[in-house]
């Protein structure tokens, strides 16, 4: 079990009670979709999926699942690992995966550091962290997931030449992430123009958190770091 440290998961996992249907799906379907970290990870992550996939992508904290599910639908040859500790969000994803018969999705409902430590070295082709909890109060910044230890974890599991993508609407978290990635030997930010970080990635579906930010007058920023 990974030791707890600054940057690990903080927060409330349970919200509103689930409907009987969602509760049943969580009980009956989540066990076959969830990663079993008590077993060793396969050397080739493509073996995790029912679908015949060519590469593997990780999304830490998929929230409402808008991005994760969109990518899984539009990229059936990519396997997606989605991590989300909040029960309501996980239930929504499980419903979609089951109803749509998506065979290229695996899920995990606890602390992301457990998965990052479980994955084999250089096993991921892409990783996303989109609109994470910004912990906006300065005294809580130590709780932000982006920190030297977790960047070490991302660096270990990402293949050389792959990308780590990060989005937020909170200026202090954008600056925080840029500074931490700049100071990390394994990540290189290669933006050349403002459009490189003001414009979402190709085929971007948007998320509920992005929509909320826009309603409240904040603009999203989209950072892409190369795993060197």
Write a structural description.
The protein is α/β, with parallel strands linked by helices. The chain has 9 helices and 7 strands; from the N terminus they run ααβαβαβαβαβαβααβ. Strands 3-2-1-4-5-7-6 form a 7-stranded mixed sheet, sandwiched between helices. Strand 1, helix 3 (66-74) and strand 2 form a beta-alpha-beta unit. The radius of gyration is 17 Å and the shape is globular.
- Report the principal-axis shape: globular
In helices, the fraction of residues equals 25-40%
Q: Note poorly predicted spans.
A: 1-7
Q: What is the CATH superfamily classification?
A: Vaccinia Virus protein VP39
Q: What number is the mean pLDDT? A: 92
Report the top-level CATH class. Answer: Alpha Beta
In what order do the strands lie side by side in the largest sheet? Answer: 3-2-1-4-5-7-6
H/E element order = HHEHEHEHEHEHEHHE
- From the N-terminal CA to the C-terminal CA, the straight-line distance is 29 Å
Strand content: 15-25%
CATH topology: Rossmann fold
Main beta sheet: strand number and arrangement? Answer: 7 strands, mixed
- By CATH, the architecture is named 3-Layer(aba) Sandwich
Number of contiguous helices = 9
| Alpha carbon gyration radius | 17 Å
What is the structural class? alpha/beta
Total domains:
1
Task: Please count the beta strands (DSSP E, at least 2 residues each).
Answer: 7
